[in-house]
Fold:
Amino acid sequence: MVDLFNNLALGMAVALSFKNLLLCFVGCLVGTLIGVLPGVGPIATITMLLPITFGIDPTGALIMLAGIYYGAQYGGSTTSILVNIPGEATSVVTCLDGHQMAKQGRAGVALGIAAIGSFIAGCVATLVIAALAAPLTRMALLFGPADYFALMVLGLMFAVVLARGSVWKAIAVILVGILLSTVGTDLESGEERLTFGWSEVADGIDVAVIAMGMFGFAEILRNLETSQARDVVHAAIGNLLPNRQDMAQSAMPIARGTFLGGLLGLLPGNGAVLGPFASYTLEKKLAKDPSRFGRGAIEGVAGPESANNAGAQTAFIPLLTLGIPPNAVMALMVGAMQIHGIIPGPQIMTKQPNLFWGMVASMWIGNLMLLVINLPLIGVWVRFLKVPYRLMFPAIVVLCCIGIYTVNNSPFDVILTAGFGLFGYALVKFGFEPAPLLLGFVLGKLMEEKLRQALVISRGSFMTFIDRPLSGGLLALSLVLVVIAIVPSIRKGREEVFQGAD
Amino acid sequence: MRDASNRAPRGAAIRSPIDFAGGLFLLAIAAFGYAGAFALPFGQLSGIGSGLLPKVVAVLVAAFGAVLVVQSLMITGDRLEQWSIRAPLYVLASVLVFAATVRSLGLIVAGPLCFIAAAFADRDSRPLEAMIAAVVATLVCGFLFKELLGLPIPFDATGILGPLHGPYEALKAAAKALVLGSF
Structure:
């Protein structure tokens, strides 16, 4: 316990430096902004800002990027409530009751309870991260290369099972990501692989190139296909603070939402996305009068928003303790760490305590900042919603181009990004999801290294993966997961959950 | 959303066009990947060579692709989604324009050109509005990346803005002095 306090104190000291405070603020602000704007997501934004973080130290960079991520969750609820368009995938559920509340003139209350619920959830989640970190890391240090490889396989399988769409297609896409990660120079032998003679990729494809192409450009292309009609609520926003009755009604939903969201956020794959749905379903089941849901029930906003934010923060746990990114955004954080020369994994806590505890502390500070930023600035965000997309997306394109160019001063990188944009567009047209590819890409090199090491240690025997209890167990679990996902009855259940998202 | 109107017609040879295309796509990627690693050594199990992972993964991708193609002939699925031509064409062209001009002509030309080319992708774009926004966006981005972040990007490679350089540098120096002086 004393250790925990010491570490948190260290974290606070790091996070409260002027520079890191500023970066946290910028991250939260930018995050809220892109959360508010439909059509621009945290993945696209983080990829756009990745090149910018080159000039900043790793702790500051990650603080800012993290701020963008959970800031976007806050911002997403604003658009859901006011415009009935989910700003983020996780804010879909908030549209249901939140927009109804807005139509009844209670937009302010909805926004207020969303912010308060998110803040409470964020605080709890930060404490959870701080508490779980040490035990998880100690456990992770017991992992040998074979176990690590098996853990990565399990993580990828979780991501597949919890993602939308066909399990087989997701696995195929992950494999493509791993294939792309082999492009470049092999570390062991120094031979060039899959470069086809292009010297520009001799160092491998930059994660920023793939990310910006597939999530930045491809996203713009998809948005241009669907014209978005926005019906911004013009009714009075009303009082921003919920009254006592609202708070009383929301207290338990917030608590339950935090618990659910926090738990689901730990799971690799988009566990954080499932949180709001699970919370809404639970609240509806537990309510004395379920018919109120869908017509402006405050529990339908308080619970899901808390789940949302709790999940966003606990999603950092697998990243910071095991080095395994649970979703595409965390995969980008891994990319950012790699760019700064930090190897993600259990040793981060011991070798880079400033980074680890600084991030944890700044998450709490970020939550506080978001509460303060969101409530007064609502009017500003609403005005931003009125900027037409036809002016926004070319600006995003230019920003992406500049960003990519500054990575290596290379026009080739820019062209390659365009290529990946087309690739990402094609991928979606053919019915695949692009997010697992990024996971496969980011983990590919690490997986190959662990595979190599495991086989060297076992002198070429594949049995090592089954002999060792830890890796055998993890691989068995992966298999079980895949089987469960394919079994028809459960498959229908998955589809239902995601139908609710449509 | 899966609604009936998107399903392939009954009795068609290819029951699921989207899966058929997807499977072919995977096969193409696998072929590409294998070709790129063709000459590399497989190595032995106790010391895997540089070619092992790319080749094995490529084969696995090909396997998935083949399964998808076969499945598309047997199980009914969705039709292929429509590809729009306009949006991808203009957006990707704008990126290529940027890549082609940024080094030789600098950001001051590449930025607006890229913006305007991309704006064509949206039918609702208005020319005058786009041109103004293009210049503003370029100036803001240029300022952000070059001055605030110090990242190297050629702003004015051909010196079109030649005469403005002097006053701009003077303005920068004054602003810096003001900001630093007040601390």
Observations:
- Chain A has a mean pLDDT of 80.
- Chain A has one domain: 2-499.
- Chain A has 22 helices and two strands.
- The CA atoms of residues 19 and 236 of chain A lie 38 Å apart.
